[in-house]
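Human: Cast an eye over this sequence-structure pair and say how the chain folds.
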Amino acid sequence: MYVHSAQPALCPHIEWAVAGVLGVPVNLTWTPQPAAPGTLRAQAEWVGRPGTAAAIASSLMGWQRIRFEITEDASPGVDGSRHAYTPSLGPFTAVIGANGDILVPENRLRTAMMLAAQGRVVLEEELDRLLGKPWDEELESFRYAGEGAPVRWLHAAG
């Protein structure tokens, strides 16, 4: 989980939201975010049941002044997931295969092709959106600014 930027006043609320999902107290290490002066960043890893990333993302999407990414690795019998949120783009969610690739469901591809055939979208742009490219582009400067930041492990086995 990467909280790329958050107003300092939101930091305790973010910790409470994550703790509510994990069922254990959470105290993240917050550091300044150079890509957005006046904001803070934190990152953590956890071990838990499948679906935890989606639950954490859902609990954080209500605030509009944060940027975050949460990735859940695939586990036996369960695909992984990636969730991202930015104030300007809103939420992004994708299924992640065991090899780390984004898996785009067939119906979403068919819809993209239909909308492009109707002239309502540009196919290449719609495919980029399905792959999360706009979120990657917006978050890249925040990721780079976090290089070398401390990582904290959170444990919530269940």
